[in-house]
Structures are given as C-alpha cells and as structure tokens.
TrEMBL record:
It comes from the Bacteria. SMART domains: HTH_LACI. Pfam families: LacI (PF00356), Peripla_BP_3 (PF13377). The lineage of its organism: Bacteria, Pseudomonadati, Acidobacteriota, Terriglobia, Terriglobales. Keywords: DNA-binding, Transcription, Transcription regulation. Residues 18-67 form the HTH lacI-type domain. One of its GO terms (molecular function) is transcription cis-regulatory region binding. The keyword Transcription regulation applies. This is LacI family DNA-binding transcriptional regulator.
Length: 358
C-alpha cells in the first residue's frame, strides 16, 4: 500500500505569531502596529522586524473596532473622467497613506442624488474625516457630517460648522497673471468660457476674470462670455458659438484645461491656428496640458497642495488639542506660460512697409 502524503498546513500568521517571534506580549504588538507613541523603541523595532519577517498584515477592521477609528479618510470628487481628479486622488492617497490612513472614494458627477449616496457610503463606513472636492457641496450634507462629529474639509466658502475647514483657492492671482500676460502681448479682445455657474468655483473664476479685466482697463464684451460645463465637448461647443459671432476676440481664457483643450479642437476643425489666430489659456494645469499641440498655457492649481492641505486639515480636527473650527487654508495659483499664447493676429501689420503704403 502506498503511504498517504503528509499535508503540511501553512501556520496561520496572526498577532500571536508576531508576539512569539518578537518575544513580546500581544499588547505590545497591538500598541506598536497602532502607532502608540509610548511603546519602547527597542520593543517596537523587534515587533516591526517580526511583522516583516512573517509577512503579517494587521486586521484593520478589528483594529477599528478596538480603537473606535476606521483609519479611513473619505474623498468625494466631481467626476473621474476629468484628468484633474485622478491626479488629485493620487496625491491625496499618497499623503493619507504616509499618515497611516486608507481612502474611500466617491464621485458625484455634479448630481445631488449621487452626492447624497457618496455621503451615505462615507457614514456607513465610519470614515474618520471627509475631503469634499466637488467644487460645490449641499449644506444639508455638511450638517449630516457635523451631527456625527466627522471632520470635513471642502473647497469654496460655506457656512461655518463644527470640525469644518476650507481650502480657499486664490483664483484671482493666477487669472490676473493670465490677463496681464495677454495684455502685455497686446490683446484687448479677450473672451472667457466658464464652467457651470451653479458651482461656486466656476462663478468665482468668472468673477475673478471680470475683475481682472476691469483692473487692466480692458472692456468686457458679454457676447464673448460663454457658460460651459468643464468638459471637452463643452469647450468645443462654446468655441463654436464664439466663432459664429460677427466680431471675434483675439484671445480666450477658460475655466479649466479640459474646456481649453476642447476649444483647441474646435479651432483646429475650423481651420484656425493657436496662437497665430487665437491665444488660449486654461486653468488647473493637468498633466495632459503639457502634451497638447501646442502645449497649453494655463493657470496652475496644484493637486499636491490641495491634497496636503486637505489631509492636514482633517488630521488636525481629529486631534481635540488642535481643533480650529472654520480654519481656512489658502491654495495659491500661478500662470504657467507654454505655447498657446502669442501676439494678436495682424499685431505687426503696421510694421509692414507694403501695408503702410496702402
């Protein structure tokens, strides 16, 4: 008879195994992996060495039950299809992980019902804090997070609530640099394609543009002020509306880069060149902006700055000693000049001897 082969079961790797390998108590292992600062440094070193050697992965759900903290940060964004938001998610996750947190992502597509569903998921998963990057948040949702004492950080001003912080984007600084850049080049006919004006951020960017035109002494032509939707198709459609007008601007500023890229495509389809026929400026400075043809001049709003300030604000409000209700974190913007801006068409015509003799 053939002897049956012995089956060697792989020993279960758990907190008991880590404690035995490190020659410490289970309590010491628990305190170490939960980053309790009072653990002796030599004991903690032995625990982490054992964790690495055994390939142990702590049970985060069990830790959450014991500590009362999920070690989860929620992140609600407007739409995944806009490259700005995946870039923001990547930066946010990196910063969160550095602080020992995982992230839970929700996308609203600018719809109130989806925003409510995202908020419900965050509440059900007992997130420790939520960063709301939808560029427009319903007040009743902020109230719901406040009831559960969940810290919230969001973009754009909103009524102050307990454990809430604001990321205040300095739209005017970057847009003013853009307007001044165009003015120095000689542009006095400048149009603007906004985002959906129901969003505070889109309204703020449009208001900043109008104020900057006024400061530069440039007349506003309302026929060149078009409301878009922050998408490629929206930018294309808006530029087609402008091209149908009798009198055309020489430069266009856009509320975001996706709109600007759509504008570029509309101009290409109509046989125009950028910047020879129209100068163009976007907003956000998504990674793709460097790779359009020609590369897009744009106003940079750093995803890294947004992520670092958002996570910092949430963690600050999780510590009772550091809570600063209604704290505001300023996010700077600045113009990044590439190749979609130049002199207005025919700006040098007066220097042409043949044209002067006519």
């Amino acid at each position: 008879m053939r002897r049956s082969a012995k089956i060697h079961a792989t020993p279960k790797i758990d907190i008991h195994g880590v404690a035995a390998r490190a020659r410490v108590s289970i309590a010491t292992v628990s305190r170490t992996i939960n980053h309790v600062p009072t653990v002796d440094s030599q004991l903690a070193e032995r625990v982490w060495k054992a964790v690495a050697e055994l390939g142990y992965f702590p049970n985060t759900q069990a830790r959450a039950l014991v500590s009362g903290k999920s070690k989860l940060l929620g992140l609600i964004v407007s739409e995944i299809t806009n490259p700005f938001f995946p870039e923001l998610i990547q930066e946010f996750e990196q910063v969160a992980v550095e602080h020992g947190y995982e992230i839970l992502i929700g996308s609203t597509n600018y719809e109130t019902t989806k925003m409510e569903l995202c908020a419900r998921r965050m509440l059900e998963r007992k997130v420790d804090g939520v960063a709301i990057m939808t560029f427009g948040i319903e007040d009743f949702l902020l109230d719901r997070f406040a009831v559960d004492n969940i810290p919230v950080v969001f973009i754009d001003p909103a009524p102050s609530r307990p454990l809430s912080s604001v990321l205040a984007v300095d739209y005017r600084a970057g847009i003013n640099e853009g307007v001044q850049h165009l003015a120095v080049l000689g542009h006095r006919k400048i149009g603007f394609i906004s985002g959906p004006l129901r969003l505070r951020s889109a309204e703020s960017r449009k208001a900043a543009f109008l104020n900057c035109l006024k400061s530069a002494g440039i007349k506003v032509d309302l026929s060149w002020m078009i409301e878009g939707d922050h998408t490629l198709d929206g930018g294309r459609d808006a530029m087609q509306q402008i091209l149908a007008l009798k009198h055309l601007p020489t430069a266009i500023m856009c509320s975001n880069d996706m709109t600007a890229i759509g504008v570029q495509h509309a101009l290409f389809e109509a046989g125009f060149k950028v910047p020879e026929d129209f100068s163009l400026i976007g907003f956000d400075d998504i990674h793709l902006a460097e790779y359009t043809i020609p590369p897009l001049t744009t106003v940079r709003m750093s995803c890294k700055d947004l992520a670092q300030n958002a996570v910092g604000a949430l963690l600050s409000n999780l510590d009772p000693a550091n809570i600063k209700p209604g704290a505001t974190n300023k996010i700077s913007t600045r113009l990044i000049v590439r190749q979609t801006t130049g002199l207005p068409k025919d700006a040098l015509s007066d220097l042409n001897p043949k044209r002067r003799r006519r």
